[in-house]
Task: inverse folding
């Protein structure tokens, strides 16, 4: 039997109406819709097209030209303004191209429907159909508009800066910016000082993310299992106490810990370490011990939220499964590895991945504890700087905007790739349609 034998026969009612003609006429927006006898719709599209060309053509043309040159006269032309106008022009041009393509597709689709006998609706019915089909888009449009100009525009500005020579010694409006291609990325991986700093900071960022996040998750799971045990009394009080560190603002906790870990007058050295060992630990002045302190602080700050998640999941696991496991002779480890752990991970894996991604960019604790210090000889970042805090220092302290932008692009790519790959590996993603 031929492959198309099971396909229903499509009967063309109006052979004279040609979808190709409708698409070709739509090269001038609205004309294809008029060919389809949708006169109000065609007139509206043509007016919008003509208004956009009349109002925005000059802005887009000048913006794209400025994006190429980034200015011509130092002190008079500000390259940052040229860059901003150029990015806005690209955004508006993208809107226009999308509108133009959709106009052609719409005309061709309506023409095909007319061929098959579809009756063109009157004005009132057309408005009703447009409202019914477009209602979800009308709701998300304001949010999309804000997203474009609050998130996408600054993001594009940062991306473009990574390909310029914008730094402390070449700053507009005194100087004009120039496009330098991938020179900033080449410097990052070829110049010894930049290369060593980048790989040292990247390795510490990965270690920090994995160790601190895994410890807070492990501690939260351990405490949640203990508190969930039927033999434990006063569960409500214990859960409240464990969630208290989450209730206190994080920056307050970090500042308090910064004082507690102080090398000279901190209570940890003065009251605990020195009486036991005779000398204090250089928590603030030695990079290794500063990293240990940061991991301990983050474990303390991060476990309450995960503990609350795990507590809710553990209470939702049916007791019948554990009873069935007892009948089968399973020990505690087998019940944990085959019942408790899989269910907890299935329910919370996406949120746990976000914990890793959040700690990868956890600027607050690094900066508030000791501003990324202590300094390291031969390195343009502090001993405990992670990528995001290093980018902050390059931007606001050293005005190395081009290098900060280049590192930010790499940072963003790492987070996106990591989150994408691990989301796809989770059972909650693979079995989403089966829930």
Result:
């Amino acid at each position: 039997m031929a492959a198309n034998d099971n396909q229903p026969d499509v009967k063309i009612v109006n052979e004279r109406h040609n979808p190709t003609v409708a698409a070709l006429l739509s090269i001038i927006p609205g004309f294809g819709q008029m060919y389809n006898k949708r006169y109000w719709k065609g007139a509206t599209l043509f007016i919008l097209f003509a208004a956009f060309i009349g109002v925005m053509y000059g802005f887009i043309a000048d913006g794209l030209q400025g994006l190429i040159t980034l200015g011509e006269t130092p002190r008079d032309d500000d390259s940052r303004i040229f860059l901003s106008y150029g990015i806005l022009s690209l955004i508006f041009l993208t809107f226009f191209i999308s509108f133009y393509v959709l106009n052609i597709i719409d005309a061709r689709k309506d023409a095909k429907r007319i061929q098959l006998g579809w009756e063109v609706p009157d004005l009132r019915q057309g408005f009703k159909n447009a409202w019914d089909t477009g209602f979800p888009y009308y709701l998300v449009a304001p949010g999309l508009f804000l997203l474009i100009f609050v998130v996408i525009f600054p993001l594009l500005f940062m991306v473009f800066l990574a390909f310029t020579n914008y730094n402390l010694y070449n700053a507009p409006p005194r100087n004009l910016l120039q496009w330098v291609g991938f020179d900033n990325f080449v410097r990052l991986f070829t110049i010894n000082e930049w290369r060593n700093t980048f790989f040292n900071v990247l390795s510490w960022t990965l270690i920090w993310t994995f160790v601190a996040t895994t410890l807070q998750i492990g501690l939260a799971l351990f405490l949640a299992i203990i508190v969930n045990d039927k033999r434990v009394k006063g569960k409500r009080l214990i859960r409240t106490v464990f969630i208290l560190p989450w209730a206190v603002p994080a920056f307050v906790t970090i500042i308090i810990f910064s004082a507690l870990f102080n090398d000279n007058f901190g209570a940890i050295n003065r009251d605990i370490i020195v009486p036991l060992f005779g000398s204090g630990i250089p928590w603030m002045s030695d990079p290794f011990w500063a990293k240990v302190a940061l991991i301990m602080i983050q474990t303390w700050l991060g476990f309450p939220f995960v503990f609350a998640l795990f507590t809710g999941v553990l209470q939702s696991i049916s007791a019948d499964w554990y009873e069935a496991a007892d009948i089968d002779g399973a020990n505690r480890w087998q019940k944990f590895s085959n019942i408790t752990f899989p269910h907890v991970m299935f329910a919370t894996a996406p949120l746990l991945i976000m914990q890793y991604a959040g700690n990868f960019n956890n600027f607050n604790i690094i900066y508030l504890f000791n501003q990324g210090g202590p300094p390291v000889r031969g390195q343009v970042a502090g001993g405990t700087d992670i990528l995001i805090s290093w980018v902050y220092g390059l931007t606001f302290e050293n005005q190395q905007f081009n290098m900060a932008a280049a590192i930010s692009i790499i940072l963003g790519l790492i987070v996106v790739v990591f989150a994408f790959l691990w989301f796809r590996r989770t059972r909650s993603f693979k079995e989403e349609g089966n829930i």
User: Anything to note?
Assistant: The two ends are 38 Å apart (CA to CA).
